[in-house]
Design brief:
By secondary structure, the protein is of the alpha+beta class. The protein is built from 16 helices and ten strands. Strands 1-2-6-3 form a four-stranded mixed beta sheet. The protein has a two-stranded antiparallel ribbon with strand order 4-5. Strands 7-10 form a two-stranded antiparallel sheet. It is found in: Endoplasmic reticulum membrane; Microsome membrane; Mitochondrion inner membrane.
Length: about 500
């Protein structure tokens, strides 16, 4: 008897077993899919095992908006066997996040990357619990104490705007990319609130912090799947991207811990200098309380989220702002004329001037709409069964909120890809607010940094346009208005010339 005659039956048996196991997985997955599909809104058909994963690896907000044309404003997609209900359009999103806020305001369980304490979720990932309410109240109060919404904060932003202007002036009409300078400026505003100090633009520590923030937002949403679905690690590109993302978050946490340690060395409960000190004081007050949620890791996580959200949104929107001014020089000129008429050549802007500058405010609103720097809200999670728009959505369902579908809805904004500040002006030329401008989401999980971001945008924008006219480099092609989707939505890299105004 040959050795092959002995081995072949065993090989055939193993092959048959493998085939059987694959078949069982496919059947079970399909059965789970069909069972959940009977209660959830219908949506695009996916593949066995992976669901709609490959379709969602593209520009997700745009894909979801296209699917809504076929399946309606509420539909279901699958990442592997996990269903996600997608909300599109202002009406559906408001009905969920405002009218049904009791059910739709929580967060799904997600791993806190690089943290030894998985209960420390900061504000962004904390479910809608008493812990969330406690820390949101503390954070908002502490930020107000250090100037948010006050004149003192305006002064800090204007100091940073002057530092930014000084760096731009040194370019002396040379072509450069302004993206990193905006990140420097917005990061320094957050740093002054949280750390009590700012970084010089050539400071190695500042550059290191900026690099970590930039790498965080450069990852695509689908590249994070292995973090939530370990099975996705079998795809080499996803495995590599997710591991790089995790390593970057570990470095960012180490940077924050270093700052906290320095603050502990000089901490004085009678002299609270910044947000780090405020949190340390609150922790000290609760010493001995076994139920205290003011832990070391919660401290790190809240600060991490403040830096990520506070730096990227503002810097990206300012980057879009100068891009749109380059693409629309006539609008740039109108904004500058209004700035000149209100401020003249020497007076610095303040928030008191905003009501006197309706065209500038309208332009900033149109920039924010088209920039859509956070096109998808952070994922929501249902805390109970709900009958929503004719469908039964069970407790524990993940919910995707597509803000892009509102900001680019042609029914709300005719020709949504056209840059037109007059959308925000009434017949008399006064600024007109639009409730559909949900760039910071809506409901109970409205972004807590909305107020600070709006102040920064107005002061930075008016300050630099008072001093510079932005143009494409001579002989260079006009930059593209098509953005790049990562965790956010940013302009494709481009160079510009900042011509000093006389």
């Amino acid at each position: 008897m040959s050795i092959m005659s002995v081995l072949l039956p065993a090989v055939d048996w193993l092959w048959s077993l493998q085939t059987l196991l694959v078949a069982v997985v496919v059947i079970v997955t399909t059965a789970m899919w069909k069972r959940s599909a009977t209660t959830l809104p219908p949506g695009p058909r996916g593949l066995p095992l992976v669901g709609n994963l490959f379709s969602m690896s593209k520009d997700i907000p745009v894909v979801f908006q296209e699917w809504s044309k076929k399946y309606g404003d509420v539909f279901t997609v699958y990442a592997f066997s996990q269903p996600r209900v997608v909300l599109n359009g202002f009406s559906a999103i408001r009905e969920a996040l405002v009218t049904n806020a009791d059910v739709f305001s929580s967060r799904p369980p997600v791993p806190v990357l690089g943290s030894p304490d998985q209960s420390a979720k900061g504000l962004l990932f904390e479910p809608y619990t008493p812990r969330y309410k406690e820390h949101k109240k503390f954070t908002m109060s502490a930020l107000r104490d250090f100037g948010v919404g006050k004149r003192s904060m305006e002064g800090k932003i204007l100091e940073e705007a002057q530092a930014l202007s000084d760096v731009i002036s040194k370019k002396e009409n040379q072509a450069f990319c302004i993206s990193r300078l905006f990140k420097n400026a917005s990061c320094n505003v957050i740093s002054s609130l949280v750390f009590g100090s700012r970084y010089e633009y050539d400071d190695p520590k500042g550059k290191e912090l900026l690099q970590m923030i930039q790498e965080t937002f450069s990852i695509k949403r689908h590249q994070m799947l292995p973090i939530i679905f370990p099975a996705a690690r079998i795809i080499p590109s996803l495995k590599k991207a997710s591991e790089g993302f995790l390593d970057n978050q570990l470095k960012l946490r180490a940077h924050i811990r270093e700052q906290i340690a320095k603050h502990k060395e000089t901490f004085d409960p009678n002299d609270i200098r910044d947000f780090l000190d405020a949190f340390l004081l609150e922790t000290q007050k609760r010493e001995g309380d076994e139920n205290s949620t003011f832990t070391k890791e919660q401290h790190v996580e809240i600060v991490r989220q403040l830096f990520l959200a506070g730096t990227d949104t503002t810097a990206n929107t300012l980057h879009w702002a100068v891009l749109f001014m380059i693409l629309h020089p006539d609008i740039q000129q109108k904004v500058q004329q209004e700035i000149d008429s209100v401020l003249g050549p020497d007076q610095d802007p303040s928030m008191d001037h905003r009501s006197q500058m309706p065209y500038t405010e309208a332009t900033l609103s149109e920039i924010s709409r088209m920039a859509a720097t956070a096109p998808m809200a952070t994922r929501h999670f249902t805390t109970g069964d709900v009958f929503f728009r004719g469908y039964h959505i069970p407790k524990g369902t993940r919910v995707e909120v597509n803000l892009w579908s509102v900001l680019y809805d042609p029914q709300l904004w005719p020709e949504p890809n056209k840059f037109d500040p007059t959308r925000f002006l009434d017949d008399s030329g006064k600024f007109s607010r639009r409730e559909e401008m949900i760039t910071f989401s809506m409901g109970r999980r409205l972004c807590p940094g909305e107020r600070l971001t709006k102040v920064e945008l107005f002061l930075f924008f008016t300050f630099i346009l008072q001093r510079f006219t932005f143009k494409p480099p001579e002989g260079s092609p006009i930059p593209s208005a098509k953005g790049v989707f990562g965790l956010g939505h940013s302009p494709a890299p481009f160079q510009l010339v900042a011509e000093p105004r006389k």
